[in-house]
Design brief:
With 116 residues, this protein is α+β, with helices and mostly antiparallel strands. Helix content is 18%, strand content 28%. It contains two helices and six strands. The strands form two sheets. A four-stranded mixed beta sheet has the order 3-6-5-4, with helices on one face. It has a two-stranded antiparallel ribbon with strand order 1-2. The longest helix is centred in the first third of the chain and has 11 residues.
Length: 116
């Protein structure tokens, strides 16, 4: 049976992004060999959204209080790419990884599947 998921982030600066997850977000990790870090994520959900264009994937991290999380990460030097906005499903923003990628951050207003 399937017992987990594995998210892959392709990065122009993998070392910097690994350091970000290790040092800024303080995610627990294992070294799979040669400094190849694999991070433990908080409980996760998956959603499938319709599109008229090509399929794509996005990574959103969830938090209980987006304003407090933005303040904490900003104090650690994280660059936010858009202001916090209200959506029907939550309060959302995004931040830049050191390698150039963007990660979404949101405070859900919907029932969370992680509670199942």
């Amino acid at each position: 049976m399937i017992n987990g998921g594995h998210v892959v982030i392709h990065s122009r600066d993998a070392e910097a992004d690994r350091a970000f997850f290790r040092d800024v977000l303080e995610y627990p990790h294992v070294d799979a060999g040669g400094g190849w870090l694999i991070f433990k994520l908080p409980p996760a959900e998956i959603a499938v959204h319709p599109t008229d264009g090509p399929g794509s994937q996005e990574l959103y991290l969830m938090c209980d209080d987006v304003d407090a999380t933005v303040a904490d990460l900003t104090a650690k030097g994280v660059e936010f790419t858009r202001p916090v906005t209200d959506a029907r499903w939550g309060r959302v923003t995004g931040f830049r990884l050191p390698g150039g990628g963007e990660v979404g951050l949101y405070e859900p207003r919907h029932e969370r599947a992680t509670e199942l």
